[in-house]
Specification:
This protein has about 300 residues and is α/β, with parallel strands linked by helices. The protein contains 12 helices and 12 strands. About 35% of the residues lie in helices and about 15% in strands. α3 runs parallel beside α6 and α5 crosses α6.
Length: about 300
Amino acid sequence: MSQSVEHQPHLHVVGEELGPRVVAIGGGHGLAATLRAARTYSGDVTAVVSVADDGGSTGRLREAGETLAPGDLRKCLVALAEPDSLLARAMEFRFDSGELAGHAVGNLMLVALKHASGDLVAALDEVGRLLGSEGRVLPTTKELITLRASRSCGETVMGQVAVNACDDLELVAVDPVDVPVCTEAELAILGADQIVLGPGSLYTSVLAATAVVGIREAIKASEASFVYVCNLNPQVPETSGYDVAAHVTALGRHGLVPDVVLYDPSRMDGAEGVPQAVGARLTSGSGRAHDVELLGRALADLVDLGGATA
């Protein structure tokens, strides 16, 4: 939903200046980059994170009976911590031998705190406090969910890892379909000035986060400017051959219509038929990942424009 004339941004202090309330939605390394970028111009940052992951350390914890998918939540907490935080570095440490081989310390910490507190949001808030995080990390739902995808061939695929291995994806959803939304995440979206979706794996991170119905409906109901940050390159095989227009088409199949589609013209083509596309330089060096400063500057400019396309 486009930002209405009546909606006045909630301005919060960024250093000695005021900044907007930003909610970043998605998962994985892409969402972590957006959070670091948002910290450069926002006075109030909230991450709303997909919890449909079932690979790696997270997958092993789920197989052991845990109802928590901590991996992407951990990445976001670290992204919002102070850059020189010893605890943040420790949370990323992975054991390399024994029964704990492959597990990240932060994943185990979140599982323990969730059991101790009895509430996932309380556990996340406590880790954020310990890290001195500038912002808040919230799950899309507090319940155990499984990602489900339909392919153009008619097959249904279950599980984030299996979906990520497909190249003809049409729609993603979560099981159970009526899983309750995390109330704190819903309220953050409804109170935002800017909602940033992506970048990241289109189906298994970005759309997986919005597959929780309450998250998708909150985005539609919010008066915030809704920005989609397009990936720099197709992700093989998940989005092989995708250009900017293909990303927007996929969002549309899931009922999502961004006010702005932010992309780097040097990295991805196909924006000519996308009226809300805004091109900006978003990479430096190798160009394999979004540059935090450049992405932050581009997103801040969109706040100044009120979400209007250029």
